[in-house]
Amino acid sequence: MTRDTRPLAVFDLDNTLAWTAHRQHFLEQRPRDWDGFFAAAPDDPPLAEGAALCRSAAEECQVVYLTGRPERCRRDTLDWLAAQGLPEGPVHMRRHRDFRPARVTKVEILRRLGADREVRMLVDDDTLVCDAAEAAGFPVVRADWASSSEALREAQEREGRT
Predict the structure, then answer these.
(1) Order of strands, edge to edge, in the sheet holding 62-70?
(2) Is the dihedral angle over the CA atoms 144, 149, 150, 154 positive or is it negative?
(3) What is the CATH topology of the domain spanning 8-159?
(4) pTM score, two decimals?
(5) Where are the domains of the chain?
(6) One digit per residue, pLDDT tens: the chain, 162 residues?
């Protein structure tokens, strides 16, 4: 088997490739309904801009998915990616009970990925993740084609849930 040496194009999922607006209401209640939020993910419509960029990047790069979704969502996530016709690639998910901010966990994974491969781009909607990745020297494409709720931003940063 030949090792893939192409550069990496790293894509976030929620509000980058998948539009989460229909399930953000689960995060606006107290306590937040995380089970409901993630259970509704298979019904996310794709975001055309993100999907097009992902397919285009796959022409020159190996696509890698980097999400704050918990590991328990792996099967639904893989099924969703396949149903959208998005390129196959490794999916890095949040480990069980890891509630560190996404800006920490994602940059940690980017550094691991970039240790022996060029990371051509990170595509993410989270401003704090983008800022941290740029500060660490990674090229970033800010996925600004979907609006996220304040509840989702708070979940990403303060609760380390997505």
Answers:
(1) 91-94, 62-70, 8-11, 119-124, 140-142
(2) negative
(3) Rossmann fold (3.40.50)
(4) 0.91
(5) 8-159
(6) 667 899 999 999 999 999 999 999 999 888 989 999 999 999 999 999 999 999 999 999 999 999 999 999 999 999 999 999 999 999 999 988 888 899 999 999 999 999 999 999 999 999 999 999 999 999 999 999 987 666 666 665 555 555
